[in-house]
Amino acid sequence: MGYVGYEHRTSVPACDAQRPHLLKGRCVALGSAERAVVVDVGPWPLEERNYGMTWPASERYRLEAAPAGLALVQDLLNTLAAGKPREPDLLGDLTTAKNWIGEDLSTWARERDRPEPQVEINEHDLDELRVLRGELQDALRTPDRRGAEPALADLSALYSASAGLRMNRDSRVSIEPRGTGWRYIACLVLMEALEAQQTNVWNRLKICRNPRCSVAFFDRSRNNSGVWHSTRVCGNIENLRAHRARARARASD
Ligand SMILES: [Zn+2]
């Protein structure tokens, strides 16, 4: 199996664009005026991608899901209101949030081959989840997460969660999330972040640099240099803005 990726050139529904039959360099008709052009971005083999999984928050923004359970963290970040026209905040009210959590936990359980967790949330949990989302977003915005030694202030705990360790009869050790309500979700998020750090993909989960967008995307570029969730959508807007600012500066000289 070769390494392939794809790039949205026009409006392509995520469910269509993620079909593995898309091959490098091929334009695929997906319906009225929609097409996807597949480009080589590696290094994730097709079979490791999240095909057929449902991550409702990220799919609203037509984002390709991060690998395995890391997509849960991405989906929490993408519950925010973004896009054009503006999509609603999925943590905006209790009913919407419960639906989102139900769908995400079901996808996470399938992805991780675990029993589906049942998590009840109330208004207080919803507040805490919004805080968690905001702080996680700020943490991922740190300019160079691979780089220099962190400042002392950065070493204090942002979040802590309790989890259990369990060894199965086949000697495999797994982490068991603990807690109820928002604490359980926070525990899952920290578990997935830990795993992503151990497999060296955590620093590919990024927040789009366009402040009006701010969706979370998984950077599959070869050298992990992406800053926009879509160069075409957000990169161009930003380049145009910079170009106009330069033109204005020249005109006023
Ligand atoms: Zn963006």
UniProtKB/TrEMBL annotation:
Residues 204-246 form the Zinc finger CGNR domain. It comes from the Bacteria. This is Zinc finger CGNR domain-containing protein. It comes from Streptomyces phaeofaciens.
